[in-house]
Amino acid sequence: MVRNKKVVVVLPAYNAEKTLQDTYSEIPQDIVDEIILVDDASSDRTAEVARSLGIRTIIHPENKGYGGNQKTCYREALKLGGDIIIMLHPDYQYTPKLIPAMAYLIQSDEFDAVLGSRILSGGALKGGMPLYKYISNRVLTLIQNFFLGAKLSEYHTGYRAFRREVLEQLPLGENSDDFVFDNQMLAQIIYFGYRIGEISCPAKYFKDASSINFSRSVKYGLGVLATTFKFVLQKIGIAKINIFKDKNSK
Length: 250
Hints:
Blueprint: E1 7-13, H1 20-25, E2 34-39, H2 46-52, E3 56-59, H3 65-79, E4 84-87, H4 99-107, E5 113-117, H5 131-148, E6 160-163, H6 164-169, H7 181-191, E7 196-200, H8 214-235
Parallel strand pairs: 1-2, 1-4, 2-3, 5-7
Antiparallel strand pairs: 4-6, 5-6
Helix pairs in contact: 5-8, 7-8
């Protein structure tokens, strides 16, 4: 726990057999109360490795997509009574050693969500991020900062921490089950006025680290632009978009 706040780490997994043990070994067990892995119908031994490590494991019988996986992760974390929920990819691309810093930033009551930014570290390219992904990251971030009225260093990191109330209040069920889920979630956080903090996070790109290919990247980029457009339409009152629907409204 972090000052009586229950910390739950969720691992949305797909074919993470080769990297899971390295990821798990660096999770600081002294502050993390629960670890949940959701295996999205992997074709390898991800679930078997997770259970051998003593990780609470949930298996999707059919692949639900990256966004669908996260929906299960957050739902289960809330069921376990998590006060601070941290999403970490089990592909060892992001270092678990930053979990305490992210948890304490949430506990400080200064932020409702904290992002591990690969851009703040200045080492995204040195870590192996493909040049086209780096350029698209910077361009899309510039566009979204302008239209969403935020000042984030990046919108595309997969390392995130949340206060319980954020996950309870956001209409996450309206979001995509695909990769654009991440971006829709950040747009929702900004729309509903939650506070976002960032910390510098080195990232590693290597053979066994998960990464979407060029065509999926293009699809993701178009989804980001669509999310931005919907945010603007909702904000100026031209349309009512489901992903920005208040869960408490009738």
